């Protein structure tokens, strides 16, 4: 019975003090318990971006204290932009109360498009779209209006007269609220 109790306690201890491969010492756990709120980071970043052409795409904060801030602009993001925003965030947070690891970058091609302005920026590029109902689309982004995208897709269909396959283009409209994932296809 004591072995079972020890096992349960060990499991609880491991769940509480182990976060994404990083061991959180019970002595230092108090420092990690003070979690930085996403709203706080968003507010700081929006203040940093106020007089620039940059915009905030997303903030991700883990329990282990890792803060990832993704910024973008219609003209792209430079390393200096990321460094400036990073320094601004660091100047607004208190390291004596909060231990954190900060990363500021552009979303990059591996991250899904999230904001209407990102779709507008990528008009003319090819996208892979996954709707929330599981249907996938591949095509060229042609337009964005009233929170809907216009995607030009190509399909191969069999011509009934000749029996040969031919490529046809069709336009699909998808509401932004129906998109689960939208990624840019590089190199096309």
What does this structure look like?
The protein has helices at 2-17, 29-33, 38-49, 79-92, 116-121, and strands spanning 18-19, 22-23, 54-61, 66-73, 101-105, 126-131, 136-145, 148-158, 165-175, 179-184. Helix 4 (79-92) links the parallel strand 4 and strand 5 (101-105). The protein is an alpha+beta fold and 188 residues long. The protein has 2 domains: 24-105, GMP Synthetase, Chain A, domain 3 (2-Layer Sandwich), CATH 3.30.300.20; 116-184, SH3 type barrels (Roll), CATH 2.30.30. It is 28% helix and 37% strand.
List its traits.
five-stranded antiparallel β-sheet; 188 residues; alpha+beta; three-stranded mixed β-sheet; 2 domains; single chain; GMP Synthetase, Chain A, domain 3
Low-pLDDT runs of 5+ residues are 26-34
Q: How helical, in percent, are the residues?
A: 25-40%
Number of helix segments?
Answer: 5
Number of domains: 2
What is the strand arrangement across the widest sheet?
9-8-7-6-10
Secondary-structure element order, N to C? HEEHHEEHEHEEEEE
What's the Cα radius of gyration? Answer: 23 Å
In CATH's first tier, which class of the largest domain applies? Alpha Beta
CATH superfamily of the largest domain: K homology (KH) domain
Strand content: 35-45%
Report the principal-axis shape.
Answer: elongated
The profile of the biggest β sheet is: 5 strands, antiparallel
SSE-based structural type: alpha+beta
CATH architecture of the largest domain: 2-Layer Sandwich
Name the average pLDDT: 84
- Classify the oligomer: single chain
Could you say what the CATH topology of the largest domain is called?
GMP Synthetase, Chain A, domain 3
Number of strands: 10
Distance between the termini: 64 Å
């Amino acid at each position: 019975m004591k072995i079972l109790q020890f096992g349960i306690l060990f499991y609880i201890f491991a769940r509480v003090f182990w976060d994404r491969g990083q061991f959180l010492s019970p002595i230092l756990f108090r420092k990690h318990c003070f979690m930085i709120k996403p709203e706080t980071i968003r507010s700081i970043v929006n203040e940093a971006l106020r007089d620039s052409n940059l915009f905030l795409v997303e903030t991700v904060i883990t329990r282990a204290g890792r803060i990832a801030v993704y910024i973008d602009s219609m003209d792209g993001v430079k390393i200096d932009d990321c460094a400036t925003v990073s320094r601004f965030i660091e100047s607004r947070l208190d390291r004596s109360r909060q231990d954190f690891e900060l990363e500021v970058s552009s979303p990059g091609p591996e991250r899904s498009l999230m904001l209407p302005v990102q779709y507008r920026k990528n008009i003319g590029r090819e996208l892979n779209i996954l709707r929330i109902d599981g249907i996938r689309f591949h095509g060229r982004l042609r337009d964005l209006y009233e929170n809907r995208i216009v995607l030009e897709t190509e399909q191969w269909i069999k011509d009934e007269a000749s029996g040969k396959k031919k490529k046809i283009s069709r336009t699909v409209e998808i509401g932004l609220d129906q998109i689960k994932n939208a990624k840019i296809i590089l190199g096309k």
